[in-house]
Amino acid sequence: MRRSLAPSQLCKSQKPSDTNEINDDDDEYENHSPQMYISPYRKPLQLLNRKKKDEKGFPKKLNRPKKPQRPQNQSHSEHESFIKSILSKPFKIPIVNYKGSCLSRGLGVRRQLLRQPLHDPFEEDALVLYHPPELSPHEVMKMDKSKIPVHVVVDPRLSKVLRPHQREGVKFLFDCVTGVRVKEQHGCIMADEMGLGKTLQCITLMWTLLKQGPDMTPIIEKAVVVSPSSLVKNWEKEVNKWLGGQVQTLAIDSGSKQEIDRNLDQFMSQHGRRVGLPILLISYETFRLHAKVLHKGKIGLVICDEGHRLKNCENQTYSALAKVNCKRRVLLSGTPIQNDLLEYFSLVHFVNEGLLGTANEFKKKFEFPILRGRDSSACDDHKKLGETKLKELVDLVNLCIIRRTSDILSKYLPVKTELIICCPLTTLQFELYNSFANKQEFICDSIQPTKKRKKNSEGVTSGGLTAITQLKKLCNHPALIYEKCLQQESGCEDMRKIFPSNFNPKLVQPELSGKMKLVDYLLAVTRTSTSDKFVLVSNYTQTLDLCEQLCRSRRYMFVRLDGSMTIKKRAKVVEKFNNPSSPEFVFMLSSKAGGCGLNLIGANRLVMFDPDWNPANDEQAMARVWRDGQKKPCFIYRLLGTGTIEEKIFQRQAHKKALSSCVVDQEEDVARHFSRDQLRDLFSPLRQDGTQSDTHDSLRCTRCVNRIQVRPPPPDADCNSDLTNWKHCYQSKDISDLVLRQIWKQTGATFAFTQVSHEEQRITV
Ligand SMILES: [Zn+2]
């Protein structure tokens, strides 16, 4: 209990008993700064109980570290009194027995008549799904106040993470399920391509419907997401990620029949304010098996993930789902709906029954005339009618289908420039390379006549595989094979003498490797002329060891992620690196350690030090920086030793990308795919007057004459285009990346393919 310091109350507060109250306020002492309470317009009223306080031992509190600053020139006890006067400031209403107006609202009391949306519709970036009609004051007066509709506004926590196309998608979904787009119909199909965030859009829709409505009550009580069993956990994870802790889900992907029935029963029997588990996540199979329970009551919203399973309206899953007592239905599909009329019919019929009529009506009204019109022997009238009917069908169906392709994603990302750079070997590398390659060719040839020797199906022996690795390592840096040369290992005999006599493998010498030299330059120029950071990727931990040494000698801060790191530690390291103010300049990554899902947007330049057999690995590594959240233009440097085995691996990779069906994961498998001729080609020695780029040579390019690109690539080409349609660069002036352009001459690079992801066009919606 506290007393007022108003003059009328002061006499009371001077009573000795009040000192007890002061003690009660001790705890607040630490947390309150007196300044918070001092009005600039009035002086402290009076100093109280100075003496008593001293006796109470207050002074020692002054030694507390967090003591508030007191006004200068005040003695200690004055200060204490001052604090006390502040702390004893009451919350009491000054007029005794004053009750206040009965209309005014007490704190924490909900105002009965106040009708307002759950979230502020006028806030910046607010995503408003429903706007109440504008009413004139007269209309408002006439209206029943309890029925004035309010805005429906997406929870700002979600709307702030939604991208423009997702905002558009959520609005589309909402309009469909609330019957705004098609009268009397409440379903839709979202057929966005992978990666556009269908899940997040659906979660936003669910959350909004579960929490809000124009009449201030939630539009739905319960939602069910049906998905393939492998995705149930994923949905659970996503819901937790976006709505963490705010909503409970019931995820059913296993369990005994009775247990599942019991859980589903419980789910279905929830109503009104007591819906503790408003979201059910269930697989198609489980749904079908337990459909009886799920048909018992009403469900607010059903979402069918991978919904193209429902393209056949005669299967059991379809009928089990179709019978659900739920008018709001959303079907998700990542694959475009085939140009099959019946497939169209069953999917649209599932979400919006009656929109296309019954199956028979559909056949009569659309299918028959359209098919007849397409017939090659159709007369003009039939053709015309067929076209009209098709257009009518498409227009009708488009009201409830939304499909966007992943192309739109790149529009929201900064421009990515990919550069494939051919770096010639240094003299040392060159001599070692040919010495090694010559012996390998000999091995291959010698194998051939004696077929009895154990070898893999198409010619590569395990020795051949080792040889490939050795050559690749040599292309990275001669130091990586020095040990083998010292040991005189197979293929490396007599190679020690090629190394300079004072060669020290412990000392990092970037100038001995064409690629390492280029990286050294790249890092130095970037470091001094920009605030950009690098990701450095290699297949070999040994190469990363060298890069580590390089960074040390240049005093660059770096981090290295290796397989042994715990997930938690990884996350920490990554988070720190991505912070623009952290001093780490280089992030080293082994392409094998994957880094699947690793987000390294703190860097916008990435070096792929060596090519991997599997294009998917390289693609994955490159996607670490050019992804969601990246704000700077990105540069991907892929380095290849000019004319070497690396270029050949790269060409094979490009070839394999074209035949994406035969992507191979294991290096062993890849090697097995080489014929003897290809193998010989792989190990062919380099020529002194060698090529600028073996890869470019293999294209038989018609746009380049005498080492000059005379015709530019087609304007619509991008990083996914064939290399023939990339820019072919021979000199520094051809290079658009200013960092590489500056160092082109010094590095001795012979050729580069460059391409950009898209023209810069930032769209803000
Ligand atoms: Zn060319």
Quick structural gist:
With 765 residues, the chain is an alpha/beta fold. The protein contains 31 helices and 19 strands. Helix 15 links the parallel strand 7 and strand 8.
Q: What does this molecule look like?
A:
This protein has 765 residues and is of the alpha/beta class. Among the domains are: 81 residues, no CATH class; 182 residues, Rossmann fold; 253 residues, Rossmann fold. Helices cover 41% and strands 11% of the residues. The protein contains 31 helices and 19 strands. Strand 7, helix 15 and strand 8 form a beta-alpha-beta unit. Helix 10 crosses helix 11, helix 20 packs antiparallel against helix 21 and helix 23 runs antiparallel to helix 31. The longest helix is centred in the middle third of the chain and has 21 residues. About 13% of the residues have low confidence. The structure holds zinc ion. The site of zinc ion (ZN) has 6 residues, from loops. GO terms for molecular function: ATP binding; DNA binding; DNA translocase activity; helicase activity; hydrolase activity, acting on acid anhydrides. Keywords: ATP-binding, DNA damage, DNA repair, DNA-binding, Helicase, Hydrolase, Nucleotide-binding, Nucleus, Phosphoprotein. It is found in: Nucleus. InterPro entries: Helicase_ATP-bd, Helicase_C-like, P-loop_NTPase, Rad54_N, SNF2-like_sf, SNF2/RAD54-like_C, SNF2_N, SNF2_RAD54_helicase_repair.
